[in-house]
Amino acid sequence: MLLTSAHPLCVEATLDPRLTRWKWLVKWILAIPHYIVLFFLQIAFLLLSIVAFFSILITGSYPRPLFDFNVGVIRWSTRVNYYASAVLGTDRYPPFTLRDVPDYPIRVDVTYPKRLSRGLVLVKWLLVIPQLLVITVLISSGWSAYRYLDHYSPFSSGLIGLLSLVAVVILMFTGSYPRGLFDLLMGLVRWTLRVLVYAYLMTDKYPPFRLDMGGSEPMAGAVQPAGGG
């Protein structure tokens, strides 16, 4: 783990202080090689999630190699989204790797669960529906957390895409990315990823209806007010 987090998922992000005013206009084009690779990685992600479902149902455990691979896909996709579509908080080109890159501006990790509920795996799809309704608004009018990894457009039509566009337009005219918008966007991304790892059976911890804003993950045991970071 990157640090002791209040949730099994940990997201840490740093806003690039030297963002160019114009590069966001072409980042989605520059990221096309990543989109091609991610297309195949996401197919593998879905297939391995099905295998993990039966493993959890029978043994109560998520096979560690499958878990590490799927965390790597989430990590890779999140880096590309952070660069090219959601937040656009860095000009540094994402690396082609499933591994954690300690010096990259955004890092994602998920604590491996030693045991998972065999009964809960059958109903998570139902329990997560209220969260999916929220995520549909955050990502797009027609998407859900299940489609978060398939983020190929420059901007989504959801709240995250809209706020990202507002942020980079402000950047274009002022040369400065608004810190308040960055903190809010990171809270929305963090919420989305928490729902994603629950929906894909990687944790039994239900995602909170809470917006933990900012680039830093809330520490375990810290009291976080609703809407606070």
Q: Helices, strands, pairings?
A:
Layout lengths: L8 E5 L13 H4 L1 H28 L4 H21 L21 E5 L13 H4 L1 H11 L19 H16 L4 H21 L30
Q: What do the pLDDT scores average to?
A: 87
- The SSE string, one letter per element, is EHHHEHHHH
Total of helices: 7
Strand order of the largest sheet: 1-2
Largest sheet: 2 strands, antiparallel
Question: Radius of gyration, Cα only, in angstroms?
Answer: 17 Å
Instruction: Write down the oligomeric state.
Output: single chain
Give the tally of β-strands. 2
- Hey, roughly how much beta strand do the residues contain? under 5%
Number of domains: 1
Estimated helix fraction: 40-55%
Short description:
α2 (32-59) runs antiparallel to α3 (64-84) and α6 runs antiparallel to α7.
Can you describe this structure?
The protein is mainly alpha-helical and 229 residues long. It has one domain. Helices cover 46% and strands 4% of the residues. It has a two-stranded antiparallel sheet. α5 runs antiparallel to α7 and α6 runs antiparallel to α7.
Features:
229 residues; mainly alpha; two-stranded antiparallel sheet; 2 strands; 46% helix; globular; disordered C terminus
